[in-house]
Amino acid sequence: MKTLTQVFAFCLLCLGSSFGNADDRPNVVMIISDDHAWTDYGFMGHKVVQTPNIDRLAKSGLTFRRGYVTSSLCCPSLASIITGKYPHQHKITSNDPPIPAGMTNAEFNRSPLFQEGRERMNKHMEACVTLPRLLKENGYQSLQTGKWWQGDYTRGGFTDGMTKGGRHGDDGLIIGRKTMEPITSFMDKCVAAKSPFMVWYAPLLPHDPHTPPDRLLEKYKVKTDSIHIARYWAMIEWFDESVGQLMDGLKERGQLENTIVVYIADNGWIQSPDNPRYAPKSKQSQYDGGVRTPIMIHWPKRIAAKMSDELAQSIDLLPTLRSALGLAVDASLPGINLLDEKAVASRKAIFGECFTHNSNDLDRPEKSLRWRWMIEGNKKLIVPNVSVESKAETELYQLDSDPTEVSNLAGIQSETVLELRKKLDSWWGPNL
C-alpha cells in the first residue's frame, strides 16, 4: 500500500510544475537551531532538557533521527542548507577570510582586508541558486531573520530581511531573544496580499552568550552541578519556546496546514562543564557531536508522520522542497528528495567535510580542508588532510555500538578502511 507521502509525490508528478494559484502554493518555514547537540531534545531521549514544541513537530512530521550537516561550522553549514551544495562546491568553507601573516585576529577584523575577504565570500553565495532566489522566481516573498553571514539579506535572494551586512547577522540576531518581529508582521503582509511566503528563522539560540531568562535558569540549576550546563539547557528550552511562538503564529493566521516547516541545527555543541565554551568532539570537529542533527519535514495532511533512522543530510532539503513545491528537479544537486522513500532507502552513504575556522584560500577549498568523513550504514570513516592536520590519524567508528566515537577501529579493520576510502575519494578526492 502506498503511503500518503508517496501518493502526494505522485500527484505532484501529474501536475508537472508549480501550483497554479498563489492560494494553492504552500509556504515554507525553515527553523535552524544554532550550536545544538543532536542528543539534546526530549524526543531524542534527553532525560533533563524539555523541548515540547520541537517534540510535537518531530512526532507529527517526517523526522530523520540520523540527520547530518555537511560541516560542523556555522557559516559553511548554513550556506549548504540554503544552496543544497557541499562547501567545496559553493566555496564558502569557513567562518572568516584568511588572516594575513603578522596580523592578530582583532587587527584583521578591523582592517579593510577583512571586508574584502567577506565580499569574496558573498560573491560565492551570489553565484549559487538559493532557495529564496528560486522561490522569488515563482512568486514568493521571503524573509531572512537571525544568523546570516553573506552580507545584506538580498545577496541570498531574500525579498525582506533583518541583516544588513554584519559578520554573522547584525540586527537579525535579536530574533527569538528579544522579539519575534518582523516575522509576525511579514506573515500578516503576505497573508493580506495572498502571497506565498518563506521564513528563514535562524536565531542565535541556543548559541552563546548563554543568557536565558532567570525562570528557566532556576529550573535547570537544580538539575546539574555545572552552572554552564544549566545555562545551556535553559537556552535550549528558551529556543523551544520561540519555536512554539512561531508555530502558533502560523496557526493563528490559518496557515499551519498550508506551510511546510523544515527543522535542522546548523552544527552540534557539547557544553563544557567547566567553562562557557564547547567541549571537544563537538563544534568544529569531525565527530557526530559536531555534524549530526535531527532533520524534520512537517506538512499536516500532506506528509505522513514517521520517525526514520535512515540517513539524511542538509543538502537534501533543497531537492526535497523543490519536489514538494512541484518545481523542476535540478539534477546537478548532490542531495536527494527525502519524500522519495525509494531514494532514501537506496542511499548507501553520506559524506561531509570540515575546514579551518579562517579560510586559507577563498577560492581553493582543499587548502582549508581539515577532514573528510563518510558514513555507510553504521560505519564512519574520517580521513585527515595531513597538510593541515599533520598529527591527525585516519579514524573508523562503529556508530551503533559506539555513538560517542571512542574506539578507533582503523588499526584493526584495515580492509574496511581501504574499501570506504575508495568511496570517499570518488566523492571528493582533491590532490592533497
Written description of the protein model:
The chain has 432 residues and is of the alpha/beta class. It has a domain at 4-14 and 25-85 and 128-346: Alkaline Phosphatase, subunit A. 32% of the residues lie in helices and 17% in strands. It has helices at 4-15, 52-59, 74-83, 87-90, 105-109, 112-126, 131-137, 183-192, 214-221, 227-252, 288-291, 317-324, 341-346, 414-427; strands at 27-33, 62-68, 141-146, 160-161, 197-202, 259-265, 292-298, 306-313, 349-355, 369-376, 379-384, 395-398. The strands form 2 sheets. Strands 4-3-5-1-6-7-2-8 form an 8-stranded mixed beta sheet, sandwiched between helices. It has a 4-stranded antiparallel beta sheet with strand order 9-10-11-12, with helices on one face. Helix 9 packs across helix 10. The protein is globular and about 60 Å long. Mean pLDDT is 94; it is low at 1-21.
Q: Nutshell version of this structure?
A:
With 432 residues, the chain is of the alpha/beta class. The protein has helices at 4-15, 52-59, 74-83, 87-90, 105-109, 112-126, 131-137, 183-192, 214-221, 227-252, 288-291, 317-324, 341-346, 414-427; strands at residues 27-33, 62-68, 141-146, 160-161, 197-202, 259-265, 292-298, 306-313, 349-355, 369-376, 379-384, 395-398.
What labels describe this entry?
14 helices, disordered N terminus, globular, 17% strand, 4-stranded antiparallel β-sheet, 432 residues, alpha/beta, 12 strands
Report the principal-axis shape.
globular
* Gap between N and C termini: 49 Å
Computed structural class: alpha/beta
Quaternary structure: single chain
Strand order across the largest sheet: 4-3-5-1-6-7-2-8
Q: Which stretches are poorly predicted, pLDDT < 50 over at least 5 residues?
A: 1-21
CATH topology of the domain at 4-14 and 25-85 and 128-346, by name, is Alkaline Phosphatase, subunit A
SSE string: HEHEHHHHHEEHEHHEHEEHHEEEEH
Number of strands: 12
